[in-house]
Amino acid sequence: MTPDLVAELLRQLMKEAMILSAPVLVAAVVLGFVLTLLQTITSLQEQSLTSVPRLAAVALILLVGMPWFLGRLAAYTLLLMSDLHRYLG
Asked: Helix 48-82 vs helix 3-42: angle between axes, to the nearest 10 degrees?
């Protein structure tokens, strides 16, 4: 494998990882920001108030988005396997 091919494989891998992790990370960040703002406004200092809803939201997004996540991963795996001859020699 040439260095260009390795760089291209890593670029594709990082792109897929960012696409797959973006919905979960964005939802966790937005919900955390909103809950922290709510805590600041109401002067509540309970740590479980931010972590429990954030965990629930992440779990819900993972559960609802699982068909899309798995379809995307399967398509990427099929793409890698179909081009396997390019990577081996």
From this structure: 160
Cβ–Cβ < 8 Å for 54, 32 = yes
pLDDT in tens, 64-87: 999 999 999 999 999 989 988 887
Is-contact 31 51, C-beta < 8 A?
A: no
Closest CA to 12 of 85, 88, 78: 78
Q: What amino acid occupies position 34?
A: V
**pTM (2 decimals)?**
0.76
- CB-based contacts of 33, cutoff 8 Å, min separation 6: none
